[in-house]
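Table S2 (continued). Query chain:
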Amino acid sequence: MYTLDKLVDIINAEIQNRSKSLKKRNPPNLYTPVNYSLGIGGKRLRPVLVLLSNNLFTDDIKNAIPAAIAVEVFHNFTLLHDDIMDKADVRRNKSTVHKKFDENSAILSGDAMAFLSYQYLMEVDLPQISEVIRLFSKTAIEVCEGQQFDMDFENRLDVTESEYLEMIRLKTAVLLACSLKAGALIANANIDVANQLYDFGINLGLAFQLQDDLLDTFGDQKTFGKRIGGDIISNKKTYLLIKALENSSGETRIELLNWLDKKDFVSEDKIRAVKAIYSQLQIEELTQQKIDFYFQKSTQLLREISLPDNKKSTLLALSNRMLKREN
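Corresponding output:
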């Protein structure tokens, strides 16, 4: 089995190789933002999951590398467009693409990345690639559906917990699950095991996105890579806000609704006030409980997969790293 660090090295080396090729393509103004997006780093979680899943069934992971790159390019394409919609200025402690260049460049380069991802995926010259492409296409549509739900929620105060969880399943969890299943399919693994890995990825993805929401409010920008409090400023319907609206009453609810209704405010004042309300309502603790629920569910699903424990240990280690667990 490859170590996690080795898999990250393989992905980064392959991205560098792809970037060299893209730099030779014309027009440069289309591909420069693509290279910028891929070059500002990131955890490379999704491509690592492709290779790690593949490595569960074979020692030769070279057939999975193009699929891993395809997943990473597609993920970065979604970030380019998400950052425009969210009016985000910072991604991975760097200027977002639409700030570094402009919105039109970010839109068009993002479109190119979506199609490049399919080009890279088609490099997998195996009979089972058609099944992988079907999975990838289904996932791509679901990610867009999740983003639309997220946008629809912007104008609602009655978003339910179940609606939110379905939104993040589509927007975040399905791509993690797709990465795991794709790696298994490329290794020609048993379909039942591939589906078990998919279910594991869904629950891990739900825990991961819930934690992302939590860190957006209670994290540290240096380690989080994005501005803290961005969700509060934009009234994003996160799990935290949904639970606060659900659990607040009296003056606390009136204050929260006033902040949600304000059009003219000092960002730091709003962040400070809403965080105080969250603390009063123990929202951080409630969110952590939900994270723990899905994380424990994911580890239980992993235990049920009929593979040797020593093979699954690396996948468990990555899960712990994603959720910032110590063991």
